[in-house]
Write a structure and sequence with these properties.
Layout: H1 2-32, H2 39-57, H3 65-91, H4 98-120, E1 125-126, E2 136-139, E3 142-145, H5 146-168, H6 170-180, H7 182-187, H8 192-218, E4 220-221, H9 225-240, H10 245-265, H11 270-285
Antiparallel strand pairs: 1-4, 2-3
Helix pairs in contact: 1-5, 1-8, 1-9, 1-10, 2-3, 2-4, 2-8, 2-9, 3-8, 5-6, 5-8, 6-8, 9-10, 10-11
Keywords: Amino-acid transport, Cell membrane, Membrane, Transmembrane, Transmembrane helix, Transport
GO molecular function: transmembrane transporter activity
Membrane topology: Multi-pass membrane protein
C-alpha cells in the first residue's frame, strides 16, 4: 500500500510539472496557432535564474524561507520577461509565416541550452533545497517528499487562475473571442496583438515556474532539462486537446501516473514508451483529444 501511495503522489507531482509547462503551450497554440518549440528554453531560463538567485547572487534571495520564495519569484519574472521579448522580437514579425515561426522557435530552443552550457557548463548543478521542503511527510505508511505536494499545489493554483482569467476577466474574454474569430475581434477595435503578448507572458510565467519548482523535484538543474520536459508537455497538450487548459490538466495527471507506475512495475525506461502507447490509443478513440477547446 505504501508503494502505491508513494508512486501515486510522485506521479501527481510529475504530472503537475508537466501541466505547468503544457498550460502555457496550450494557451499559446489556442489563441495564436503558434507551436512554440522555444517553450522549453523558457523553462530552462526560469530554472537557472532561480538557481542563480538561490545560490546567493541576488540580494535578499537564498535557499531558505522567504529568500527561496524571492528566488522563485525572480526566476519566474525572468522567464516571463524572456517570453515577452521572444514574442515581440521574433514571433510577432512571423505571424503570417508559420513555417518560419517553427524554424525560429526551434532555433531559439537549441540556442538557449547551448548558451547556458557555455556559461555554466554541461554538468547538472545541485539545486538549493530549503529545509522546509527537503523533508518527507508520512501518509498511509509512505514517506512522500514535501516538494511533491508543493508542485501539486502550484499546478492547482495555476489551473484555478487560468480558469478565472479565461472565464471572468475582460482580457480572458478577448482571448476566447480571438480563438473563435480573430478577424471579428480586430474589427471591433480590440488590439489582438496585446492579447498575444499577454498570452505569451502568461505561458512564459508558467514555464518559468515549472523550471523553478522542477529543480525541487529533480534536485538539480541542467541545460537540457527544458527540452526533455517539453517533449512530454507536447504529449499532454495533444492528449488534452489542442487549446484546452482543462484537457491539459487531466492529461498531465494520466501521463504522470502512467509513467511512474510503468517505470516501477516494468523495466526501466518503459514508462516513456507507455506514455506514447497511451497517446496513440487516445488519439484512435478521440482524434481531437479529451476536449479540444480552450476552457
Amino acid at each position: 500500500m505504501d508503494t502505491v501511495v508513494l508512486l501515486t503522489l510522485t506521479g501527481l507531482g510529475l504530472g503537475a510539472l508537466y501541466f505547468l509547462v503544457a498550460s502555457g503551450l496550450s494557451l499559446i497554440f489556442g489563441l495564436m496557432d503558434v507551436l512554440n518549440f522555444a517553450h522549453g528554453a523558457l523553462l530552462s531560463i526560469g530554472a537557472y535564474a532561480t538557481w542563480w538567485a538561490a545560490d546567493g547572487n541576488l540580494p535578499g534571495a537564498g535557499s531558505g524561507g522567504f529568500g527561496f520564495l524571492l528566488s522563485v519569484v525572480f526566476g519566474t519574472a525572468v522567464g516571463t520577461a524572456a517570453a515577452v521579448l521572444l514574442e515581440l522580437a521574433l514571433i510577432r514579425p512571423l505571424y503570417s509565416r508559420p513555417r518560419e515561426q517553427v524554424l525560429a522557435t526551434v532555433g531559439v530552443g537549441l540556442a538557449v541550452p547551448a548558451l547556458l552550457m557555455a556559461i555554466w557548463g554541461a554538468d547538472a548543478r545541485p539545486f538549493p533545497q530549503p529545509d522546509a521542503l527537503s523533508g518527507t511527510v508520512h501518509l498511509l505508511g509512505a514517506a512522500v517528499p514535501v516538494n511533491r505536494f508543493v508542485l501539486i499545489a502550484a499546478a492547482a493554483v495555476v489551473l484555478g487562475v487560468l480558469k478565472l482569467f479565461l472565464g471572468r476577466t475582460r482580457h480572458g474574454l478577448v482571448v476566447r473571442a480571438g480563438v473563435e474569430d480573430r478577424a471579428m475581434v480586430t474589427a471591433l477595435g480590440i488590439d489582438v496583438r496585446k492579447a498575444f503578448t499577454l498570452v505569451f507572458a502568461i505561458g512564459g510565467a508558467a514555464a518559468a515556474l515549472a523550471g523553478a519548482l522542477g529543480g525541487l523535484y529533480f534536485g538539480s538543474v541542467s541545460p537540457g532539462q527544458g527540452t526533455s520536459l517539453l517533449i512530454f508537455a507536447f504529449v499532454v497538450v495533444v492528449m488534452g486537446g489542442m487549446g484546452s487548459v482543462t484537457g491539459a490538466a487531466v492529461a498531465s495527471v494520466g501521463v504522470g501516473l502512467v509513467q511512474q507506475f510503468a517505470n516501477y512495475y516494468t523495466a526501466a525506461g518503459l514508462g516513456d514508451l507507455s506514455v506514447v502507447v497511451l497517446l496513440a490509443v487516445l488519439l484512435l478513440v478521440r482524434p481531437r483529444g479529451l476536449t479540444g477547446r480552450l476552457a
